[in-house]
User: Fold this.
Amino acid sequence: MGGEAEGGERRLGRVLSFGIPDTALGLVMGYVEDPWDRDAISLVCRHWCRVDALSRKHVTVAMAYSTTPERLFGRFPCLESLKLKAKPRAAMFNLISDDWGGSASPWIRQLSATFHSLKKLHLRRMIVSNDDINTLVRAKAHMLVSLKLDRCSGFSTPSIALIARSCRKLETLFLEESMIDEKENDEWIRELATSNSVLETLNFFQTDLRASPEYLTLLVRNCQRLKTLKISECFMPDLVSLFRTAQTLQEFAGGSFEDQGQPVAEDHCQIVQRCPNLETLEVRDVIGDRGLQVVAETCKKLQRLRVERGDDDQGGLEDEQGRISQVGVMAIAQGCPELTYWAIYVSDITNAALEAVGTCSRNLNDFRLVLLDREAHITELPLDNGVRALLRGCTKLRRFAFYVRPGVLSDVGLGYVGEFSKSIRYMLLGNVGESDNGIIQLSKGCPSLQKLELRGCLFSEHALAMAALELKSLRYLWVQGFRSSPTGTDLMAMVRPFWNIEYILPDQDEPCPEYKKQILAYYSLAGRRTDCPPSVTPLYPAV
Assistant:
């Protein structure tokens, strides 16, 4: 009977492949890049699953504790590219204790011993030791073309020098926002400049790494393919020789100018007006509404816009020019129709501005808005109708963040979020809702939602558990600030096979208020964690 079943499976596979040879089927699958589509292909039959496994070249593991390196290699033995994330995103904002976990060591050991085709490695929010880098370099130096240590910690500059000296095929070295122990000043950049001639991207933006203008110029001179250079703080007049040498450079970040007393929003306007073909813009909110109006008038090809929060204590920010409101948001929505990514900090916002985004920004796949608490009063509350219009109009959205102030989004608004978030896979909500009914209403929709982060919403344990069960695609949930049950057992309702739950108290030395308590829950095929620190209590682990 077993042989007949196996033979039937092979015949079924051939029928479903429409006579396409495995080699051709693998090549066709190679053009399918969306992981959801690849997952759907692998579920057609076992034969297609095997072809998918052998032809899959890239995998993103969104949570390092969700699987094991051994299981991943067994499933995808021909991987050429791996992206691996560990610590929750909240760690970027110092909301997760440093000892939470996220060591890269077990992964580095396994992928160095196996993963024979691996050429690109991207580690994000992980602890990477000097020993880890030594192990990786010994095994993969001859083939690595891309190494990204993204918001990582635990290593020092001698290890970067080792990478520079040993990985001579390296085209991308990415270290942005990593915490790196500097021991040999800028010797690492000299090693990179003299050992590598094929580098195309170097990024150590927002790190404490130092690099002398002389060594940077040497790097640019020797690396004739260099297209992207993002550095730590450096005085721009010292880089004149670098820019004269950089014939192929297309993207630069990290320089600074001496303050000469001119209003910063005005400086932005003068630069932007000379960049009509700009496609990506990252600035601080000091650009103000006036600056965004200039962007909208000038940059019709803009595709990505990120406006970060400026320094509240910096001179000039008390001026209205350093504030962004519905005026700037409406200008960008109406003037930059090709935007696909938009993240912005605002001091005020209205329903009409959000409706303009929904009407004009139809290509958005990622929208993130944070409403700051600088102003005592907001022009209009609530913003339920504006959020409904935005989500109804931006049908291509896959990622949505709406971090506001209490009263901005009611339970009715959360119901709209659930109803009109058909394709959204990641969502961050802050200070939204009025009662448990809000999260329950949201959970009745959002059919594609895989990752949900909530902060400052103060829903009850029971409501959170019910919502997690209702959201059928949910794989990951992080909550900071919730109403605890008297016995702490209301989360029991969330328990299911392979669903790990962690209760996190960031401060162990004193009683933790409810708004600081955290819940982290995620699917895992790796079983219960074995490296939990005292701040993390595993609850009802998978059986």
